[in-house]
Automatic annotation (TrEMBL):
The keyword Signal applies. InterPro entries: CAP_dom, CAP_sf. Residues 55-157 form the SCP domain. It comes from the Bacteria. It comes from Deinococcus budaensis. This is Uncharacterized protein YkwD. CDD domains: CAP_bacterial (cd05379). It holds the Pfam family CAP.
Amino acid sequence: MLRAKLTIAAGMFAALAAFPAGAQSLAETQILAGLNAARAQGVTCPGTGRRPVASPLFASGTHALAARTQAGYMSSRGGITHSGAGGSTPRVRAASVGVEAVSVTEIIYMGAGAGPQGAVTWWLNSPVHCAILTDARYTHAGAAVVQGARGTAYVVVLSSQPK
């Protein structure tokens, strides 16, 4: 357990060193803007049909830090995974940076040359991801984009209202 906590902490420090606290890249801003545009108009998700309009996601620095931790981990490993350093889960990573919510989830994408809009489009064309992104119970989110040797990792951490 201690080893897992130390591994998570090391990942967070690496993510912080690569990206100043409080700063948000243009790509991360574009991801949240794209998700909020879809939520504002409602979308038709493959396999699940028309989704109702949902309130915009509130941009959260703590959520972005949790996303950045996983994006950095995926980038360093060169692959997509919801398991993080030390086997951590999205809920554990979010809680480790202060996210306290009933529902926490993470969406990920990794690819070369897709760009933020490409990631958003891919998520909206995926039945599971589209349903999550348009779920009105999610009210807070943070995005991270980390470039790696095998492509760019895109991660969004979403949660319900804080507990």
